[in-house]
């Protein structure tokens, strides 16, 4: 049976017409010259169409935290799709939507237990920004419309997300006029002062004071929200300096500004706790999540809001009308909600967040062991997320990490590259042998690229 399926897959791949699918975030021409295609996944591994096993050092796209193709999740999805494929959650609902919200609320920071469902990280971010604006209006502070993000921040690809985000490439091809009234704090990159820090750099808490500076340029009472990734992922793994997030929290509280943590990557165990908020002991007002919320088996995103935010919007809304005019056809989709419940069961039963915390020191030791390899300029890590920044080739930024990525892929390891940074965020189920396999291959790749 398997041989037949495998042969079919290989034949399909060879006959595959690559012309119709417009690949997202991909160098399309470059990809077609050297396609990389998977046909199966299980646990820590993908199988390519030509039957090679490739270890997944990125949990897909920072999302498959419990490892691939978990049977409990697959069954939950299949059962739900045949039991009740779809039901609206506008003005009516289904029990799974409420159960999934309660289950997610259980692992959120205390008091952040009102859950709004979306279908992706981008939608979660745009929902959170809208909730922030609606909250201030509801409490009679409708002048608070300014938003503050951070350079190199990644908050998805909606117009809200690219406006508060700070990755130039995500913005410049589209419009010079994104959401008006947005400022950006500096990124918390500290190569010059704290290269090769293990965990949180000691240098850089003062970068949070840039928020005060920006607020002083305006009237702080015009600012609605500040949004940051507690650990910035997509721009190359930037770890917050010690004390930095606490300082942001103090400044936001002082000025009545909402703090939004974008936990699309850090949510559900990446740092060894359910959320980065719990890990750092800093509670935001709104928290966005997606990806590992249901082990990425089917699209789902969400916003957790403090009770006070929900109450303010709902209590100040019309007596019998809609209080927040926002939602998606697929908000709390029954199949995604079923997958969410199954994934949360696995996280709890297998104590995967604790497991991530246990494996983190081993991951840290292994990634920092790459210091001294060719072109390695900085290594950053926290929990089970890490980045290795390489010196760029003169006039050809990004090509060195791309070459290393290709070398790893050919040698059975899937890493992620962004600019000249190699990023790692393996499934939380990994063991020491996986860590060895990943980093010995990366070491060989760096030497080969040299
Ligand atoms: N926010 C963060 C912090 C992310 O890392 C991502 C995706 N990598 C997003 C938002 C967007 O999520 P999605 O691709 O599901 O829209």
UniProtKB/TrEMBL annotation:
Keyword terms, alphabetized: Aminotransferase, Pyridoxal phosphate, Transferase
Necessary cofactors: pyridoxal 5'-phosphate
Any one Pfam family match given in the protein's UniProt record, by short name: Aminotran_3
Domain of life assignment: Bacteria
GO MF annotation list: transaminase activity
Signal peptide boundaries: none
PROSITE patterns: AA_TRANSFER_CLASS_3
Entries under CDD domains matching the protein: OAT_like
Family as reported in the entry's similarity comment: Belongs to the class-III pyridoxal-phosphate-dependent aminotransferase family.
Official protein name in the record: Aspartate aminotransferase family protein
Organism encoding this protein: Orrella daihaiensis
